[in-house]
C-alpha cells in the first residue's frame, strides 16, 4: 500500500532552527511491546528501555556469514557507478549500499529471520516495515567514520517521521573490534531530543551520506550529553546484532587498521508511525532512503 504523503501532523520535535533552543524530553516510550510478545526477556526490554540499545549475540548463525560476505563482495563488484543507492567515499571506495535487500535475495532473507523480525515487532509493539536498509562498508585503512548524530533528527526533519517509534538493527558481518571503527553510543541519550541549528540545504542527502553537517549537534551540546550519559563502545564477533532506538546519539571513528568492518543496517518503523511531509526540508528524500511504501514485513 503506497502512502499518501500530503498529510501533516503536529511537530513535537522542532529542529533545523534559526537559533539554539533547549533540549526536548522524549514524549514516546522506547519499548512498546511486552515480554510475551516476542523473544526478548523482561531484562532485555528493561535494558532497551533504559539504555536505548541492546546487544544480541548470535543473531546470525555462522552458516550465514560466508554467503553474506560473498554477496557484499558481489554487490561491490557489479555496482553501477551512476546508481544513487551506492554511496562512495571521497576517495572512491564504497561507503554504503542502500536497499541491499533488493540487490540480494540472501540479504532479504535476513530481515525475516526469527532472530530479527520478531524482535522489531516486540520492541515497537506493532507490525513493522523497512524504513531504510543499507550495508555500511568500512574497509581497512580507508574507511571513514560517522559523526555523532541522532538518526531520528534526520528522519523527522527530512523524511517526516512524526514519532520516535522506529528501531535500528545493525548486524556485524565482520568482527567489530574497539579499534576498527566500531560504533559508540551515549546510553540513555535517546530520552532527550537535541534540536539542531541551521536550515536543511537543498538535496542535502547528496552530501550528508558522505559527510553529515546539517542536523548535527554543536560541540557544546555533545560535550554536555557525553558528560551526562557517558559513552559505550559496542564490539563483538560477526553475527552480533546491535538494536538501538531511533533517537540514540551515536557515531563512529574512521578505520585506520587493516581490519575491515561491515554491517547490515536495518531500520524498522511501526506501521502506526507513517511518514508525513518533512518537518524541516523542502521535499522528501528518495524512496531508497525513506520508504513511503508501508507494506509490512513478514506474515
From TrEMBL:
Gene3D superfamilies: q2cbj1_9rhob like domain. Its cofactor is Fe(2+). The keyword Oxidoreductase applies. GO terms for molecular function: 2-oxoglutarate-dependent dioxygenase activity; iron ion binding. Pfam families: PhyH. Residues 1-39 are annotated as: Disordered. Residues 1-15 have a biased composition (Basic and acidic residues). It is an enzyme of class 1 (oxidoreductase). Involved in the biosynthesis of 5-hydroxyectoine, called compatible solute, which helps organisms to survive extreme osmotic stress by acting as a highly soluble organic osmolyte. Catalyzes the 2-oxoglutarate-dependent selective hydroxylation of L-ectoine to yield (4S,5S)-5-hydroxyectoine. Homodimer. Belongs to the PhyH family. EctD subfamily. NCBIfam families: ectoine_ThpD. This is Ectoine hydroxylase. It comes from Mycolicibacterium monacense (Mycobacterium monacense). The gene is thpD.
Amino acid at each position: 500500500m503506497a502512502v499518501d504523503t500530503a498529510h501533516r501532523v503536529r511537530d513535537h520535535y522542532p529542529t533545523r532552527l534559526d537559533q539554539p533552543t533547549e533540549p526536548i524530553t522524549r514524549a514516546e516510550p522506547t519499548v512498546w511491546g511486552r515480554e510475551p510478545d516476542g523473544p526478548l526477556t523482561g531484562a532485555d526490554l528493561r535494558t532497551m528501555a533504559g539504555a536505548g540499545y541492546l546487544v544480541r549475540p548470535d543473531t546470525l548463525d555462522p552458516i550465514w556469514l560466508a554467503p553474506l560476505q560473498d554477496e557484499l563482495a558481489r554487490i561491490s563488484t557489479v555496482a553501477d557507478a551512476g546508481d544513487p543507492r551506492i554511496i562512495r567515499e571521497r576517495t572512491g571506495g564504497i561507503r554504503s549500499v542502500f536497499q541491499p535487500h533488493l540487490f540480494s535475495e540472501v540479504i532479504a532473507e535476513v530481515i525475516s529471520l526469527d532472530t530479527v523480525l520478531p524482535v522489531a515487532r516486540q520492541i515497537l509493539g506493532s507490525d513493522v516495515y523497512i524504513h531504510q536498509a543499507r550495508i555500511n562498508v568500512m574497509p581497512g585503512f580507508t574507511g571513514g567514520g560517522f559523526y555523532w548524530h541522532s538518526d531520528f533528527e534526520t528522519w523527522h526533519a527530512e523524511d517526516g517521521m512524526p514519532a520516535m517509534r522506529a528501531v535500528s538493527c545493525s548486524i556485524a558481518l565482520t568482527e567489530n573490534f574497539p579499534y576498527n571503527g566500531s560504533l559508540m553510543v551515549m546510553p540513555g541519550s535517546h530520552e532527550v531530543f537535541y534540536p539542531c541549528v541551521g536550515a536543511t540545504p537543498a538535496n542535502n542527502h547528496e552530501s550528508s551520506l558522505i559527510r553529515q553537517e546539517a542536523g548535527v549537534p554543536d560541540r557544546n551540546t555533545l560535550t554536555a550529553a557525553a558528560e551526562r550519559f557517558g559513552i559505550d563502545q559496542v564490539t563483538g564477533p560477526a553475527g552480533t546484532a546491535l538494536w538501538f532506538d531511533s533517537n540514540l546519539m551515536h557515531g563512529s571513528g574512521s578505520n585506520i587498521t587493516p581490519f575491515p568492518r561491515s554491517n547490515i543496517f536495518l531500520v524498522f518503523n511501526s506501521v502506526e508511525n507513517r511518514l508525513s511531509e518533512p518537518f524541516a526540508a523542502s521535499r522528501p528524500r528518495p524512496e531508497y532512503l525513506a520508504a513511503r511504501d508501508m507494506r509490512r514485513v513478514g506474515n
